[in-house]
Amino acid sequence: MIAEGRRGRRLTATVTDLEVARQKAYLISVDFEGAGIGDVERSLDELVLLTDTAGSTPVATVAVRRRSPHAATLIGPGQAADLARDAQALDVDVVVFDNDLAPGQQRNLQQLFECDVVDRVAVILDIFAQHATSREGMLQVESALLRYHLPRLRGKGTELSRLGGGIGTRGPGETKLETDRRRIRRRITYVEMRLKEVQKVRDAQRKTRSGSAVPLVSLVGYTNAGKSTLLNALTGAGVLTRDRLFSTLDSTTRRLELSNGRRVLVSDTVGFVRRLPHQLVEAFRSTLQETVQADLLLHVVDMSEPGVPDQISAVREVLDSIGAGHIPELLVLNKTDAADRTSISRHERLYPDAVLVSAAEATGLEELADRIAGVLARGFLVIDLLIPYTEGAVLGELRREAEVLTEDHRADGTLISVRLPPDRAGRYRRFAPVGRAT
């Protein structure tokens, strides 16, 4: 679990920090829906990356097919016993299921495998816990971890989870289990209170931004698609980039000046994966609001990786779940430097409207900036405004926040033609002798 010291330093040590031996992990994916061999293999491949990022070394993977889940052990006692023998022969330290495990299933499987058994959600939460550095990110991760672990607390049987209530059952007071649960619930309340305070600050920042005509462009995409590298290449943000999953948890917003002189805000957010745990979606809701409030989404895709259509679908699924599915999207196929010519040609045919870039080598960025400007201009109004010389502050505001098309200094003021959102045009109507939509 993540905690913050009195002076803001991290109290959590990762496997790398401690230089201890990595755990050996045995990975299992169970398919109940007949998704197809390819889908199961891709899901396992992703679990391999997640497990490796979390600090364990995958030594074997296995796919299991069943008609329906077994209530006690998910895969059935017989199958579990067979897999347990394989895992013990490999001397593994942890068994990782690609599926969500109920608390009872997890306990039963741990008895069968005689080692730690975790699910996909636990692996992702562990990665987030290792990478959280800001106060907000640490609180968000802690909230998700507490909610995940609360139902998994266990005492010596159900009779010990209640206070004594009869002859022979009265004891000294609360059991340790009840004490732990009460402590965790109190901590959840405290963390959520702190997160609400952080969200108030974010909301105030958003209101300030929404009060201006500067559009917000949000970078979204699969984890490790190169979003932070692209933000650095476009804006010189200097965000730390690493070739690891979920290296970015905290949103970063920077200004970008387009080729037409217009300024936009570009925001980098946490990456997505298939079946992003709902605990994380809830905990990171304030961060993900940067995406929901955007005027344009730059959907960044690593075109050098296999399964690009699946990754695109997974990201769009998460966008729908957070209420951002309706926002205009520009597909950006990144890492052309790592893809061969055949792959590039195939993706150009599959996604003719996409922009191909290499954020690492800073190629294709001019075309991307032009496309951003073109998409943002759709549906905007072009209005002619006569700004008296006594209203110099208004003229400066327009130069900063709108796209200036022409500017002519006359005897009675500056005649300026600007492009801006319809909801912003109203505040300047008193200066507009003519108005027309593009």
Explained architecture:
α2 (37-54) runs parallel beside α5 (120-131) and α6 packs antiparallel against α7 (176-210). The chain has helices at 15-18, 37-54, 77-89, 103-113, 120-131, 135-149, 176-210, 227-235, 278-283, 285-292, 308-321, 341-350, 365-377, 392-401, 422-425; strands spanning 23-31, 56-65, 94-97, 116-119, 216-221, 252-257, 263-268, 296-302, 329-334, 355-356, 381-387, 403-410, 413-420, 434-437. The protein is α/β, with parallel strands linked by helices and 438 residues long. The strands form 3 sheets. A 6-stranded mixed sheet has the order 6-7-5-8-9-10, with helices on both faces. It starts with 14 loop residues before the first helix and ends with a strand. The longest helix is centred in the middle third of the chain and has 35 residues, at 176-210. The chain has 15 helices and 14 strands.
Protein topology:
Blueprint (H helix, E strand, L loop, with lengths): L14 H4 L4 E9 L5 H18 L1 E10 L11 H13 L4 E4 L5 H11 L2 E4 H12 L3 H15 L26 H35 L5 E6 L5 H9 L16 E6 L5 E6 L9 H6 L1 H8 L3 E7 L5 H14 L7 E6 L6 H10 L4 E2 L8 H13 L3 E7 L4 H10 L1 E8 L2 E8 L1 H4 L8 E4 L1
Parallel strand pairs: 1-2, 1-3, 3-4, 5-7, 5-8, 8-9, 9-10
Antiparallel strand pairs: 6-7, 11-13, 11-14, 12-13
Helix pairs in contact: 2-5, 5-6, 6-7
